[in-house]
Amino acid sequence: MDKDIRKLTKEEKEAIFCKAVQEEIKKHHAAGRPTTHADKRGIYRLYPDGHKEYLDDRLDR
């Protein structure tokens, strides 16, 4: 039986959201599309082959 989302803890809600996001990222990469992420260096696109393209780097060209 499904739980009422209003009764879930913050951690349970975050776990559900995280799993859903990871599944969607896999679907986008399987379709050949990049996904957008961020780290300490900045915002980047992660391509299905694993390479990162930082958006600031693209603007400098």
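Next protein, fold it too.
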Amino acid sequence: VYITHNSTRDDAPNHIRVRKRVPREIAETWAWMCPAGVYEIPEDAPAHGVVDVIVNYTNCVQCGAITAKGGRLTTPEGGDGPLYQNT
């Protein structure tokens, strides 16, 4: 996120709409396909069954990956999306 110079605020409202309690297989898929580390599975989560996903929405670079697996992105507060700059 830092390298992209994405402008975010830690107190911005969450713009990612996903269930927080999902089967571990789905949580692992979200964590694997997200390039920004938005989705985390707690270390003490069970190895099988349902887990509670931690969503670090301020890390989101709005790549759209979550929409492929049942989630939904909404436009962040105040805008049109990320403000990428060439580096």
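About the second fold: The chain has one domain: 1-87.
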